[in-house]
Request: fold
Amino acid sequence: MIDGNLKKRLITSIILFTILALLLNYNFILIYCIILFGTISILEFTNLLKKINSNIVLKFLYVSIFIVYILYFSLLIFYNLNHGKEIKVITVFILLICIFSDIGGLIFGKTFKGPKLTSISPNKTISGSAGSIISSLIILFIFVNLYDYGIPFYKLFILTVSISLLSQAGDILFSYLKRKAKVKDTGNLLPGHGGVLDRFDGILIGLPIGNELFYFLI
Reply:
């Protein structure tokens, strides 16, 4: 039986997949989503810091670093999705690994439960982490059957597992920040997910580093 929260997450994920399909084909939607995502992410991050640290200088420093990172992330997305089919496919491949890693981790964690992965995030389990990797490998097998870029399978395997682990690391990082701020979610914009950062925390880490890893491995 799927609980109510999982149903909400799955419905929201379907909506996000639809938006992803649209922004791949329409630049004005891509630009709008990037601006909206960036703005809300910065606001949510700033709100988290307000609850964690009262030092104005440190808050300004951390927010400034985060803004620069979001700008880099946004430019990377826009560039990659507008410069040839190959780069676009690779970017979508990395995005899907992050997304499926998140969904797989949730489903496996709720289904098999078991030992906790870390005390930082009590809801994260070893079974969930394994499920994240297994789910991301589904994307790998789909990718290698649809596209042939002449890249050895073992390199793509290493890349896929690495991106899944990076995505999980991003999730744990923001879980740590939320725990420090004593809040459950970074916001309430997305039903079943919370805020924008709750949904995209793994992608924020997995996509940029995964992009660099891809070109390093090939």
